[in-house]
Structure formats: structure tokens, C-alpha cells
Amino acid sequence: xxxxxxxxxxxxxxxxxxxxxxxxxxxxxxxxxxxxxxxxxxxxxxxxxxxxxxxxxxxxxxxxxxxxxxxxxxxxxxxxxxxxxxxxxxxxxxxxxxxxxxxxxxxxxxxxxxxxxxxxxxxxxxxxxxxxxxxxxxxxxxxxxxxxxxxxxxxxxxxxxxxxxxxxxxxxxxxxxxxxxxxxxxxxxxxxxxxxxxxxxxxxxxxxxxxxxxxxxxxxxxxxxxxxxxxxxxxxxxxxxxxxxxxxxxxxxxxxxxxxxxxxxxxxxxxxxxxxxxxxxxxxxxxxxxxxxxxxxxxxxxxxxxxxxxxxxxxxxxxxxxxxxxxxxxxxxxxxxxxxxxxxxxxxxxxxxxxxxxxxxxxxxxxxxxxxxxxxxxxxxxxxxxxxxxxxxxxxxxxxxxxxxxxxxxxxxxxxxxxxxxxxxxxxxxxxxxxxxxxxxxxxxxx
Amino acid sequence: xxxxxxxxxxxxxxxxxxxxxxxxxxxxxxxxxxxxxxxxxxxxxxxxxxxxxxxxxxxxxxxxxxxxxxxxxxxxxxxxxxxxxxxxxxxxxxxxxxxxxxxxxxxxxxxxxxxxxxxxxxxxxxxxxxxxxxxxxxxxxxxxxxxxxxxxxxxxxxxxxxxxxxxxxxxxxxxxxxxxxxxxxxxxxxxxxxxxxxxxxxxxxxxxxxxxxxxxxxxxxxxxxxxxxxxxxxxxxxxxxxxxxxxxxxxxxxxx
Lengths: 447, 256
Ligand SMILES: Nc1ncnc2c1ncn2[C@@H]1O[C@H](COP(=O)(O)OP(=O)(O)O)[C@@H](O)[C@H]1O
Ligand SMILES: [Mg+2]
Fold this sequence. Notes:
The structure holds two protein chains of two kinds.
Chain A: E1 3-5, H1 12-28, H2 33-49, H3 65-68, E2 73-75, H4 85-88, E3 99-104, E4 107-114, E5 123-126, H5 127-133, H6 135-141, H7 152-160, E6 165-169, E7 179-185, E8 191-193, E9 196-201, E10 206-215, E11 221-231, E12 236-244, E13 249-259, E14 264-271, E15 276-285, E16 291-300, E17 305-314, E18 320-329, E19 334-343, E20 350-360, E21 366-375, E22 380-389, H8 393-400, H9 406-422, H10 428-443
Parallel strand pairs in A: 3-7, 6-9, 7-10, 8-11, 9-11, 10-12, 11-13, 12-14, 13-15, 14-16, 15-17, 16-18, 17-19, 18-20, 19-21, 20-22
Antiparallel strand pairs in A: 1-2, 3-4, 5-6
Chain B: E1 4-13, E2 18-28, E3 33-37, H1 44-52, E4 57-66, E5 69-70, H2 76-82, E6 84-87, E7 94-98, H3 99-113, H4 121-135, E8 145-146, H5 152-166, E9 170-174, H6 182-195, E10 201-206, E11 219-224, E12 227-232, H7 234-243, H8 246-255
Parallel strand pairs in B: 3-10, 3-11, 6-9, 9-10
Antiparallel strand pairs in B: 1-2, 1-4, 4-5, 7-8, 11-12
Helix pairs in contact in B: 4-5, 5-6
Adenosine-5'-diphosphate binds at residues 13, 16, 18, 20, 38, 40-46, 56 of chain B.
């Protein structure tokens, strides 16, 4: 396997810069021109920006530099750990009849994938492959939505990009079955991975993408994902993410989408495990009558740290956006939520809603929450709210007075709290899967 | 032996130095229906809450025997298992808690405590339908979250429906009649009458006499300032309706 061990004797930024210089030629192998031409700009921008520290407002509560500053190995060429279907079975979703793609350490694994028959013109493949089979689509969309100008980690990903997932749904095409990406890390070494995904739903297309992240190893990993989505006119894209990589995995997950007129984009994440998880979710509604939905559920335990950082950009009139993030924080876990809504001058008749609710189950669990509104139009309805509290005593008493034990009453209240996000999952099998995961987790509480 | 015996009960609110109940005495036999009437703020709901095991109240003195056992020793869920049921004055909305799941868990925990078999899903659903039917509850409500978006009347009917589901030995109804329209009032009264039986006692708390036109009590008590100041039969309720509470208040003051 071709790898580079990062040189920990120098400052972390320089490790990446020298790794880039040493491996420049190799990293470029087999990739598409539009991907490669952004690399040099990206590494330069990364060098200027540096790894974010707590001094930056956007990273005030999440210390990502100490997670990145570890002796990881950078894999450069595909490696195929010997895994078979038994290894992935525990991570499949019951009754999810889907076009399945398995990615191991950020690379599509042809053997474990089971894409099946796709509608005419629909492409589900690796990004590396799409670079040669669909260079025009990649050219049009790659690097257009996840801006690296102000995001060091997006710059870093762009500099080192090798592979990831690719979906293309041509105009007017409906993909009935969900497209399921199972992202697995399987490694003995502490790895730093940088997958890059591109999802394109052209005008009038309808698709659902489910991504689930799991790990087969206890090694420390840091995954710096960048995913870009394009949702054309009158298209509808539902985009799910299950984050469950275990306690030794950290990640920054950047999910950037652009929407055109009359389209609907929905992103839903459910975070169950991870050491430090930072999600940067950005939607730009670059068309009128767009509907944009963000939902998130964070089920924190031990010393998990989960930061959802969202940006809703309204740059056209007559759009609506909905945002609901819920945290259930146990033990010493920490939740961070920052939701920014931007409405440009002239983007009238915007209806933007944002809500963030947290249940804090112990005195050591913490939540930091901050809405940010930047509104330059006058005819706008923008509401936001945040609640933080414990399980409602009145409700607990009601349940107990009907014979439920204190423990069962509390668990039921936690489930009910999470249910509001779970209800937004439109795929029944996935909804049940998440509900079951939540039930199992809560059943271990208050013992 | 009486089903419920309340002796010299004094209740306050912890660390607020508030006293609410000032020596309540009441004995209720199985099969009997008692009504407690009294003006707002006299302590009726506090008494009901203490019977159900609400922790924010502190018993300062006195005792409560239920089936001859110390009721105050039991957790709220243990009281429910032992057959105590409180229909809340203000039923709580529980968004995300489905009526069906909640009631199934409640019914089965009470059944288990009584040594009965758990009801499986199919049997439970059938039982729930029967009871909803018997209580005149719109079965659609059982498909929703507990009390969420229910009208005032629907919430009260839902309390009586739960009473019918859990089949308690002691049913305490805290102003279940308040705020109901005439149809709902009759419906609730009808439900209670259907559930009256030789092996069940009722304690019905009400502000007004009107529900007692439909539910005929064996005994009527008047509570004032945290004490039962007068006890009589159903005619006492009519007297109160006619003369108001001032009359009892004056008498109680004169007697003191
Ligand atoms: N938790 C509490 N904390 C402080 N005061 C209370 C509390 N519960 C009841 N009270 C007070 O006790 C009195 C009796 O209340 P309550 O039992 O609700 O009366 P009723 O049901 O007869 O209207 C009222 O003055 C009320 O304000
Ligand atoms: Mg009251």
C-alpha cells in the first residue's frame, strides 16, 4: 500500500503541505482535469488559512486542531482490506431495498457493492471513475458548492482529493429505490481519510441518498469528508446521514448543496457515536420557490463532542427553509449548534424557521447553541428558538401515575423527544432503523 | 376494612414554607363514591396529587392507609400497580408518545402486578377498541400522541378512558367535569357510572354540583382551607349549590 506517514515533528499544517509536495504526482494519477486543477490553489489556500483554532468564532467550541494533530497515516493508493459480506452485514439496514455502494476507507469496493439495475442514464459510481466517464458533469459541478476560500478543511480535502461517491440523475428521471452508501473504515493504522462526494440531481429528478458511516476498527481515524450536491429545477433530493463510527473516530463532514427554482432538498443527520464530530451543512437556495430542510439528531454519550454548524443562504425570493436540530446529551457529552440564516438584499418573501432543542441528562453534559441571522431584505419571516432543559417532571409523573417505572417513563420521554426528528425520515425502513438504534441506546440509560 | 383512610393529613410544599392541607380526615369504603367539593385553592388537587404520589408535596403529619397499608411508602407507579388511579385536572400533552404504546405499557405493568398475563399486541388492540367503544371515545384518538392537540373535552374523556383501561380499585377524579360542554359532561358521567362497582371506590373532586346530577354520590365532603369542614349526603351538594360556600365558611368559623 502506498501511504505517507505524516511527520509529527513539524506543525500540522506543514505536515500536510510537505505530504502534498512529495505525493503530488501520485495523487493526481487517474483523476480528472477539473479535479486536479483545483489542487494547487487549494493547498495554497490551506497554507494561508491554517487549521482552525478556537480563536475563530466558527470554531469557538470545537477544538479540531488537537484531533488533527495526531500521527495519522495518509493512504494514497487504493487498499483493499480483505473483507467479505459477513463483515458488512451488521451495518446493512433491514428491509432497505437499495442500490448499494460500499466504500472502504473512502474507496468504492466493487465486490461488496451491489448497485443493481438503475434507470436509464442514472450513474452511481466512484468519483474517480466518473472523472473519466462523465467529465462534463464533473466539470460542471465539482468544487462549485463547497467553497474552500474560507474553509481550511475543505481546502485540505480539495488538495488531496482522490475518490468518493458519485451520483448522477439526469433530467426528469426518478430513482425509485434509495441509493445507499455504506462508508466503512477498516484499518490497523491510525488513518486520516478525505473522501469527496458529488451528487447531481438534474432538473426534475427525484432521488434519495442514504449515507451511513461505521467503523470496523478501534484505530484512531480522522475523516475529512466533503460532499457536494446539486438539486436542479423542480428536483427533489433527500439526503440522509447516519454517523456511527465509534468512539475513536473523529470527523469534519462538509455537506454543501445548491438548489435551483422550485426544488426541494432535505438533509437529515443522526449522530450516535464519534469522538469529535463537526458537520458543516450549507445550503444555497439559488432559485425561487425552493424548499430547504435541515434536520439533525444528536444522541451524545461518554465524552462525545458533536457540533452541527449550518448555513442557509437565501439569495433568491419566495423560498422557505426549515431547520430542526435536537440533542439528547448524556454523561459528559457536548453538543454545539450554530445555525446561520442569510437573506440577501432583494430576496423577499422568505420564510425561514429554525429550532434547536436539547435535553441535558447530567450535570456534566453541555450544550452551546447560537442562532445567527443576517438579513438584508425587509419582507422576511424568520423565526428561531432554542430550548435546553431536563425531562419534564410533570410528564414523568403522568406516566408513572399510569404504572410505568421511573426509568421506563424517562426512556419514553427521551424517545418522544427524538421522535420529532425521526418522523422526518421519509424512508420507512430507515426510519425504523434509526428509531431502533435510538431505542437501544436509551434502553441502556438510567440503569 | 376501608379502602382508603386519610387521618389528620397535613401537607406543605418543601422549602417554601407553605401549608396547604391542615388535617384532612376521610374514610372511603370499597364500592362507595365520595365527592369532595370546595372553592378554588382549598387544596382539593393537592390532596389528589398526594394520593397519587406527587413528590413536590411534603407530608408533614398524619397518614394514609390504602387497603390497610401505608400508601405514602409507595412510588407513584407502585400505587398505580396497587390500583390507585388519578384522572388529572390538567392532563399532560406528550408529543411523540403514542397512545397505543403508552397504554400498552401501562396496562401490562398493572396486569403484571396483579398476576395477570401480559396482553400481546393483537389482544391489547382489541381490548383498547372495546374500552374506547364502551367509553364513547373516538377511536382515532388512540392513534395519536397522548393528549397532543386534543380538545379540553377530549383530554377529559381520555382520562376516563384510561380509567376504564386500567381498572383501578380507587379512582380519583380531579375536576374531570370542569370546562366540559353538556354532551361531554354526560359522556364522562355515563362512563363513570358504567365503571362504578362493588369492588371500586371513587373520589370525585368537583367545584360544582352539576355533575352530581348525573353521578349520584354516597357521601359529600366540603373542603375549605385545607380541611374537610362538613360531610353529608347528596343533599349537601344541593345546599352548596343554592347557598354557595360562604355559608359553610361562616359555620366553620363559628364552630372554631
Ligand atoms: N406546588 C405548589 N407550590 C406552591 N403552592 C401550591 C402548590 N400546589 C398548590 N399550591 C397552593 O395550594 C393551594 C391549594 O391549591 P390546590 O390544591 O390546587 O387547590 P384546588 O384544587 O382546591 O383549587 C393554592 O393556594 C395553591 O396556590
Ligand atoms: Mg384543583
